[in-house]
Amino acid sequence: MVLVWLLLLLTLLAGARLLWGQWKLRNLHLPPLVPGFLHLLQPNLPIYLLGLTQRLGPIYRLRLGLQDVVVLNSKRTIEEALVRKWVDFAGRPQIPSYKLASQHCPDISLGDYSLFWKAHKKLTRSALLLGVRSSMEPRVEQLTQEFCE
Question: What GO cellular component term, any one, is given (predicted)?
Answer without folding.
Answer: endoplasmic reticulum membrane
